[in-house]
C-alpha cells in the first residue's frame, strides 16, 4: 500500500513540527494521526486552508505550550507512591502501567491521561523510577514513581536505602 501525505497540525515526536508535510504509512495516519487531530491530509484544499489558518493555529499552540510550561514549573519534583505486592526478590506480582501512574498523579494534583505518561516498558520491580509525562507535544516533565510494598518501605526507598540488601542482612543474622 502506498504512503499517505499529511500536514501536521502540531509537533509529533519522531515525526516533525507543526506545518510540515510528512509521508507516513496509511495505518499510522488512519489509526493515530487523523483521529487524534494531529494532522490533516495534504490535498490542495487542506493546504490552502492550513495556510489561511496557520497564524491562528500557531497562536493556539503557543498558548497551550505556555500553560503546559507553567504547570510543569508548578508541579516540578512531583513524586507519587504506588503500593504493590511483591515477592522477596522485589519482583512485583503484576506490573505498574501508564494507567496506574496517571491515576496516582491525578490524586497528587496533576490531572493527566494515561496517554500522556511515557513509559518505555512496564515497571516490574520495586524501586524509585523517573517517568516522563508529556504535558504538551513540546513540554514534558519528570515524575518520580516510588513502587513499594508499604508506606514505610516507600519512605526508606525515598531516602535511598537498599530494600533487598537490608533483608539479606537480617536473614544472615538468623543463620
Automatic annotation (TrEMBL):
Protein family: Belongs to the bacterial ribosomal protein bL9 family.
Single Gene Ontology MF annotation: structural constituent of ribosome
Keywords assigned by UniProt, alphabetized: Coiled coil, Ribonucleoprotein, Ribosomal protein, RNA-binding, rRNA-binding
Function per UniProt: Binds to the 23S rRNA.
Region (Disordered): 146-175
Coiled-coil intervals: 40-74
Stored InterPro entries: Ribosomal_bL9, Ribosomal_bL9/RNase_H1_N, Ribosomal_bL9_bac/chp, Ribosomal_bL9_C, Ribosomal_bL9_C_sf, Ribosomal_bL9_N, Ribosomal_bL9_N_sf
A GO BP annotation: translation
Residue ranges with Basic and acidic residues bias: 149-166
Gene3D superfamilies linked: Ribosomal protein L9, C-terminal domain, Ribosomal protein L9, N-terminal domain
Pfam family of the protein (one): Ribosomal_L9_N
SUPFAM superfamilies attached to this UniProt entry: L9 N-domain-like (SSF55658), Ribosomal protein L9 C-domain (SSF55653)
Domain Ribosomal protein L9: 16-43
Domain of life: Bacteria
Protein name in UniProt: Large ribosomal subunit protein bL9
PANTHER family: 50S RIBOSOMAL PROTEIN L9
Gene Ontology cellular-component terms listed: ribonucleoprotein complex; ribosome
